[in-house]
Design a protein that fits this description.
- Helix 1 links the parallel strand 1 and strand 2.
- Helix content is about 40%, strand content about 20%.
- It has one domain: Spore Coat Polysaccharide Biosynthesis Protein SpsA, Chain A (Alpha-Beta Complex), CATH 3.90.550.
- The chain is of the alpha/beta class and about 270 residues long.
- It starts with a strand and ends with a helix.
Amino acid sequence: MKSIVVVLINYFKEAELCAFVNEQLLGQKGVVLHVVVVDNGSHQPALLQGLVQSVVEVIHPSKNLGYFGAAELAWKKVLERNLNPDYFVVSNFDLAFNREHFFETFLQAEARNPSLLSGPAITSELSGAALNPMYRNRLPLSRIKRLLWVTSFYPFFFIYQLLHHLKRSFMSKQVVRKEGDELAYAVHGSMMFFSRSFFEKGGHLQFDSFLYGEELFAAEQIHRLRAHAVVHHELHVTHEEHSTTGNIKGPKHMAYLHQSLKYIRREFYS
């Protein structure tokens, strides 16, 4: 049987995380999941320790490692325990699956169309918009430069966010459910399935930024390997967006995004 490790990163949302594990993950049929929780910060750490220990492992780093920083720590711990999973899933926990056999269906989809990186179809609970693929094609350098400019001055970034949400709301009225598999440049960071082959081919999660831009970082590694990400549309999740970071991001989060974009440009567009 294929092995799957699911990594969840907590940041003061332990009650919601525990509910997701108990109601969504542990209820999955046809597959055994190993769940790793990285606790970047918690009000009630005892809640995390109360999870089923035979299935869930909780890691407490000495500081907040951010999203991929925490995922990278989890991957190292997985290797130390010689788990060597077939799939390493970095996931939010503000998600709801469309079926009890979600992960079993994923394995069937991968057997049909294997990939280095994949994701499910995702619908935003807030807007109703489809979130995957995040980007169908690689972003041109001009787009990266424009995003760097927008994230350099908060009033610009605030207006950009408002326009983005208006566009998302308009696009949600035009959503048509797709079927089968779709090639993509980048999949949404709320649920990313990394295959073992991704790491065997040199892929990694050592992102030199604290938060945001993880999707582009993963996508560029896939691009360098002359491959594509895949969206499996038969898998569907509903996503309550920004339950941790907030719907409209403030100056601090803008600075994180700007730093990530600078890294992406320097490493992949020079």
